[in-house]
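Title: Prediction job returns without error message
Component: structure pipeline
Severity: low
Priority: P3
Assignee: unassigned

Description:
Job completed but the reporter wants confirmation the result is attached to the right record. Sequence as submitted:
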Amino acid sequence: MTELEQLQAKHREEAARRRAKLKERKQRAHRLIERGAILESAINEVCPADKLSNEQIQQLVFYAILAPTTIAYISEMGR
């Protein structure tokens, strides 16, 4: 393999890694947007979600998830 071919192979590998990283980042962004929409939809069943601050949403999520019954439920789901 010539020096030029080695350089081309290295660039192809780097480009493939960049594409894979970009794909993972887009998948994560999509997942976060979807889950945020699900959370907001659930909160809107009780009160307008846009009236709550990010800190209040965070407190609500932690309160709900760390409740003993929720912990047991999540543990069962993960099995």
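Comment from assignee: result matches the submitted record. DSSP finds three helices and no strands in the chain.
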